[in-house]
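Below is how a single chain appears once it has passed through the pipeline. First comes the sequence as given, then the structure the pipeline wrote out for it. We keep one example in the README because the format questions we get most often are answered faster by looking than by reading.
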Amino acid sequence: MRTRVVIFCLFILAAACLLLWFHRPAGQPINDLHEAEPVVANGLNHPAESQTVAVSKPAVSAVPSTTNPPAQGRQPLTPEDIYHGYDEWRVPINFYGKVLDENENPVPGVSVSFGWTDLSPQGHSSASTASDASGLFALEGQTGKHLSVSIVKDGYYTSRSNLDSFFFSGKNENFTPNRNVPVLFHLRKKGKGEALISTAIPGFTGIVQLHHDGTPVELDLLKGAQVSAGGGQLKLELWRDLSNPNARIFDWKLQMSAPGGGLISTDEEFAFQAPAGGYQPAVVIDMPATNLNWQGEVRSKYYIQLPDGKYGRIDFYFLSFNGVFTVQSAINPTGSRNLEPQ
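Resulting structure:
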């Protein structure tokens, strides 16, 4: 009898457990019956739309992300960030210039062209004006980053020394305009030109070199050719240390002479009037490897007087490493010191 009572109690207990199993809330684990909290999405609490999860588990947003998160340490660019990224292209551009001739006199009526980079559809804009009676000109009220300026006037040479490029942003030191201190531009008035004999050695496709042992090379500046000894108006001789042919710095010496005539070095941009005197028979460029200002390249300009008294000028370029050189000359065959071309 006692055994039947025990079996009956066990049966009632099993039935109670099955009843609890089938009546638990859907989706809730049996042994996770703690109080749940609503999810906070995007920092805002929406109780009516929130899901519930157990406090012991991390909250998960009900709406999955459709975009990739930014790289760690980087924030996505906002429209404002992008706008300010172009600030250096919106810098105010104002420019003030003045044109002077070779005697420092103002030049009116000079054609001035401006071009600047900006945020326009084509990426650049342009304008033009002319200098006034005082040689002054200006550009105002524009925006951009870089400005170029060019000047020209019939009857004048434009100096290559003129500045023509100005950064208003993007550099460590940008151009700062000053109405009271205009940028100076120079022109040189053309004079009466002469029918000069102009030659270039070598020609367009040629190449000439000096020997390293002092072997002379003579040039006929009237014919534009290398000639035998005694037949030229210009003689070149090079001595170069070849004890280490691959050395980047080495001893070298160049002698340039005008047999029966002479040379005068000049740095004039418009070398149009040869001096009447002061010519030297030879010019020597001595460049030991110990020279703190050692150079392996030479660009120089000279007035030359030929043995027969004619005047001219030469532009000389030389590379000491291989002895390659070029000579461009202009000789006045009349004997006049005027070296301005027609």
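Residues 140 and 309 are 54 Å apart (CA to CA).

See the next section for the split statistics.
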